[in-house]
């Protein structure tokens, strides 16, 4: 029987390999053009891969959990080399037979429908949660003989996450044995980037405690005048205030070109938002965030982080940031020294808001207090600039009307 080999396609964004998360077909199945045959996990996103051929599956070139290089055999189906011409013609006509997230508008629409379906499932009762368990989570459970049907899920709608599986493994009778967990996918990408940041960037951190009482009240006042779909979260307001401070201190919206020994200062702020997901830490980017209204910024931040947690953002949405905002307060901590998201020049962190005694107009009062911190590249600015930016950001938090009233 003749066969047509489909190679793992170019995943874009400089990605050179992917892990096989879940095969959607088996040997002997019949496939059609544009049918999704496998879900792969790259260093930046989970991606469904459609096949540009039709026929019967002859072989699958890799087990779930294995890693394949771009350009190596992925799947073989019955057919002839003439299918190559079909592929080229379909690609040129925009049939959608290219990688989801990188292809035609039809393909993008299909991805959006899948994202919407995942969101609906995630909101379903707990009894149906196992339908949306990540293939990576299933593989980890299978490798350790863990019965997922007996495991409670901590994710939205009771979805079982990787953290749930790892906690269960830590409490099993053989927990004293050594467990080796491969560093791959998103975790490997994060590890590589943070290691590069520590190795190449001479960073320093400064921080300050801030009275956030007025910004919390400002959010209530703003939302009282907005329809439900346009409500503004506190993170969106903090992002808006950070963007306003960056306009006064553009040195921090830059990077260092080591090859040319130059500081590259950007004209717009492409704002990265550090987000914890079941697949690890990712930093989705909101392009030209400085040109958005507060409501539009809030909407984009809400939608972007939701898609990131679902693993539904294409890699192009996870790169290109020029400045990052990290809300470590969601983990219940007051402060941190965040690592700069290489190759950016700075990262702004915000802690939790708690009631604390605070002196106001010479009188002791209970106020809502938070700590903010800034890690910065000492090559692009000195402590005066970094301290000036952080102090201005803190002043905006304590007097938000001076900024929000004109944005």
TrEMBL record:
Residues 3-78 form the Lipoyl-binding domain. One of its GO terms (molecular function) is acetyltransferase activity. It comes from the Bacteria. InterPro entries: 2-oxoA_DH_lipoyl-BS, 2-oxoacid_DH_actylTfrase, 2-oxoacid_DH_E2_comp, Biotin_lipoyl, CAT-like_dom_sf, E3-bd_dom_sf, PSBD, Single_hybrid_motif. Residues 132-169 form the Peripheral subunit-binding (PSBD) domain. SUPFAM superfamilies: CoA-dependent acyltransferases (SSF52777), Peripheral subunit-binding domain of 2-oxo acid dehydrogenase complex (SSF47005), Single hybrid motif (SSF51230). Its cofactor is (R)-lipoate. One of its GO terms (cellular component) is cytoplasm. It is an enzyme of class 2 (transferase). Keywords: Acyltransferase, Lipoyl, Pyruvate, Transferase. Its EC number is 2.3.1.-. Belongs to the 2-oxoacid dehydrogenase family. This is Dihydrolipoamide acetyltransferase component of pyruvate dehydrogenase complex. The lineage of its organism: Bacteria, Bacillati, Actinomycetota, Actinomycetes, Mycobacteriales.
